[in-house]
Amino acid sequence: MGLLSQRVERSEMEPGDHIYTWRAGYTYSHHGIYVGGSKVVHFTRKREAGGAGLDSAIAVSSLLLSRGSDECPSFPDCGFQLPDSGVVLTCVDCFLGGGALHRFEYGVPAAAFLAKVRGGTSTTARADPGDAAVRRAMHLLRHGFGDYDVFENNCEDFALYCKTGLLLLPAAAAGGGVGRSGQAAAALGVPLAALLSTPFKLVAAGPLGMAAVTAGVYCAGRYVTDIGVRTDVVKVEVKDLSAHLGWRRARAQEKKKQQQEEEAPAAAKSLLPLKRKRETCV
């Protein structure tokens, strides 16, 4: 059990393994389920015109590096993906995109989990047998896994569900924020830890003390959002997943509509001075 990573050789992989590889200079990791036969099922976002920001950048990067191509020498059907679905089947080579192969760890003791430097490499949750993970991954390849969201429904969330069958309860997901992904929790945890540790400046013994307090808050934040610790998760059969994903899609559409309604008055207000100026000129 490594504290920095869980690098493995291809010969060590077994069907149902949750694997990942680091991208963009260890900025983030891309996750998938090894289904045997040198094939991986993983989740990304379809390429969309006009995308911007962290969400789009990570998703597009994963898409370009992992979707495979018509000329893949290893697997004729590499890059198989149904329309309107972010779940894709590729060979191991295309999934890795030149990166190293790592295996995600399950059932990690709390002490070892807290000692991990990076989030998104392990969980305290217990994994189901490998054949269950393969069955879920292949089912989702045919039926999809909803809309990609870098914080709430990403490639790590996909792999975690395939391995455990656990999903956030609707009430928890409605609040937005972080899904099951340890990587997303870590990304949000750094600034949050710095903010929450600010009151301890008076008692921290200089910069080193402050750094220790911040690190402690960061690790604690990762732990309480871990899928193996949270109490707002439920086991969902893969055949019943469509109902849950349909609810998430409806919530996303409602959120988008609300955002548009909030932006409309602001846009109208910004045009008001221009309208008054024209009336004055007349």
Automatic annotation (TrEMBL):
Pfam families: LRAT (PF04970). InterPro entries: LRAT_dom. Residues 251-260 have a biased composition (Basic and acidic residues). Residues 250-282 are annotated as: Disordered. Residues 20-171 form the LRAT domain. It comes from the Eukaryota. PANTHER family: OS05G0310600 PROTEIN, OS08G0546900 PROTEIN. This is LRAT domain-containing protein. The lineage of its organism: Eukaryota, Viridiplantae, Streptophyta, Embryophyta, Tracheophyta.
